Amino acid sequence: MSETVFTYAAPALKFGRGASRELGYDLSTWGARRVLLVTDPGVAAVGHPATVAEGLAKHGLAVTTYDETHVEPTDASLTHAVEFARAEGPFDAVVAVGGGSSIDTAKAVALLVTNPGELMDYINAPVGNARAPEHALLPLVAVPTTTGTGSESTTICVMDVLALKVKTGISHPALRPRLAVVDPDLSATQPPGVTAAAGMDILCHALESYTARWYADFDAKSPEQRVPYCGANPIADLWSERALGLLAGAFRSAVREGGMAPEVAEQMAMAATFAGLGFGNAGVHIPHANAYPIAGRVRDFRPAGYPAGEPIVPHGIAVALTAPEAFRFTYDAAPDRHLRAARLLDPAADGSGPDVLPRTLATLMHDIGLPNGLGEVGYGEADVDDLVAGAVQQQRLLATAPKPVTEDDLAGIIGSSLRHWAD
Fold first, then answer.
1. Average pLDDT value over all residues in the chain
2. Which of 29, 43, 192, 225 has a beta carbon 3.0–4.6 Å from 98's, enabling a disulfide?
3. Three-state DSSP class for residue 123
4. What's the CA angle centered on 96, arms 7 and 68, to 5 degrees?
């Protein structure tokens, strides 16, 4: 029997320039008195967390700041944050000010300060034990300072498990923030390289949720079997289409301008919000599954705009690197959707067939200065099998693809993604 039900959920949302200055009032209405603010050193240096903390203090809230979030969190960095919170608490709420790394770190803290056990107990199977929370999490407010990750809307906390060299996560509806505060003034200051990477994450969130397996094509589930990612559906489609249209008008300008003009910053923040509201329910698929090992097995790639102390393939870049070939592969499952997505992203995209969306994506990637395929971040043909082995572990994501995906299919997608355009 086929599924007849889809679900939709989202955090409360406050959007607009200056919205982050209202947090003190918002938290005071919850009865909060002690707040843990989670951020990272780079964002802290810009001053946004201090401004938020000052606003909280003006409403009588005591604020403790944790500013050691690791960009692209690891199991070790999340454990460090949890131990800090357990030692400094109790707290009544958590406020994350930063990119997806800070928000995901705050999700782990909100979970583990109120629930027993350790991080690995809650990490998705087969890496972890996929334990469900027993107690309510601390209320979480997510204040993104980048435009892309969508973590402020989702039920997922992503991390690298260092010993296994794999990126995985925790997925449970309880991880969704209670309130998302999107203030374009905060993201307007992000470096161009971060804008490019995070913007590709927005784009792939919208494209993957829009091309995901239709919710009614899954087998019917009982209520207790339902998961946040239910497949493409009419409501998620609206958000994804609107996000693609906003990116068509703003993305290239956002990267070229560096410091974004206010109207461009607002469009990018809106696109990120809309894409998050779409994929946070429909789900993502092949590009995100491939991104986990691409990021987790990095050797010596150090992109501009990110901390220089260690190699990193930022999440948005890792997702984008196999996206053109992934959508070439999925084209025949939903040709009309792939073509519509290409023309939403670039109204001038012409032609038909499986090359239209990959060509549109590759052109955009070239224009905003992304690496030209996996080869430019340090991978070669000899790495394909290893990357496939990491991607195939992400069955939760691959199940959302619009057609079955085998290891051979993944090898073809990854192997064809070593280079996307001629120099």
1. 94
2. 43
3. coil
4. 135
